[in-house]
Amino acid sequence: MRDPVTITVYRWAGRKWFFRIRSECAECDLAVAQVRGLVSAHPDWPVEIKIKPWLTFLWESLRRSGWHAPVVIVDGHRASQGRVPERSVLEAAMRRALAQRGIADVGHQSSTPTARPSRA
Prior knowledge:
- By secondary structure, the chain is of the alpha+beta class.
- It is built from 3 helices and 6 strands; from the N terminus they run E-E-E-H-E-H-E-E-H.
- The protein has a single domain (5-100), classed as Glutaredoxin (3-Layer(aba) Sandwich), CATH 3.40.30.10.
């Protein structure tokens, strides 16, 4: 297996110095579910998923312009922040990352249904 593409999700959680996040984040849970759903739909993609608490890894997230959780980073590039990422956006970011590694032909079928031309 080739070097996997890394998807990192920074959730609204964690601690830094004397601050601690104790509230829940439904959008973060949905973002994680969206990433896991995309990866499970494409088992042939070499992917590694990392889920990190946003506040604990604040500087790492800010380095990628991730100011507002949930932040989704695909192979070092921000795909989404502050909302649940759309599946098509995640899939496009994954395909770009795979193409940069020369794995563009893997999983060439789209997980989103496409309209077929009707026969007249």
